[in-house]
Design goal:
The chain is elongated and about 70 Å long. It has one domain. With 150 residues, the chain is mainly α.
Length: 150
C-alpha cells in the first residue's frame, strides 16, 4: 500500500521534472561557447548552488540536476500527500521561473507564456490523476477495514 501511495506521489512530480528538464536544456544551450571549451569561470547561472557545480566541471549542471531530482524523489517519499502537492507545485514553479528567465531573454515573451500555460495544464492533469488514485485507495482501505471488523 505504501508503494502505491509513493507511485501516486511520483505522478505529481512529473510536471516539476519536465520543468527541471526544460530549465536544464535552456541553461545549457545558452552558456557561452567559452564555457563549453573549458573556461569554467564563464558559466552563466543565477542559482549559486548550480553555479558552484558549473565552475568545477562542464558536467556540473548535469550532475547537480541528477542529484536534485533524486533529492526531490526522496523528500517526496516522506511527505504526506497534501504536503507533497505543495512541494511538487513549489518545485514546478521554481523551475518554471528559472527556465523562464532564459526563455524570455533568448526566445521572447510569448514563449514564456506558452511554457507557463503548458506547465499549468500538465500540473492540473497530474494532480487530477493523483487525487483520483488516492480517493480509490482510501475507499479500498476503508472497505478493507470495514470487512475486517465483521
Amino acid at each position: 500500500m505504501k508503494r502505491m501511495r509513493f507511485n501516486n506521489k511520483l505522478i505529481l512530480l512529473i510536471p516539476a521534472f519536465w520543468a527541471c528538464l526544460v530549465d536544464l536544456i535552456v541553461t545549457s544551450l545558452n552558456q557561452p561557447e567559452t564555457y563549453w571549451r573549458g573556461d569554467l569561470n564563464a558559466a552563466a547561472e543565477g542559482n549559486p548552488l548550480v553555479y558552484g557545480f558549473m565552475e568545477n566541471s562542464v558536467f556540473g549542471i548535469f550532475i547537480f540536476t541528477l542529484l536534485w531530482l533524486i533529492v526531490i524523489i526522496v523528500i517526496s517519499y516522506f511527505l504526506t500527500p497534501k504536503i507533497c502537492r505543495i512541494f511538487a507545485l513549489f518545485a514546478l514553479m521554481g523551475h518554471t521561473w528559472g527556465a523562464a528567465t532564459w526563455i524570455g531573454f533568448y526566445y521572447g515573451f510569448w514563449y514564456i507564456l506558452l511554457f507557463i500555460l503548458f506547465n499549468s495544464v500538465l500540473f492540473i492533469f497530474m494532480e487530477d490523476i493523483f487525487t483520483t488514485r488516492n480517493n480509490v485507495q482510501n475507499e479500498t482501505t476503508a472497505c478493507q477495514k470495514h470487512e475486517s471488523l465483521k
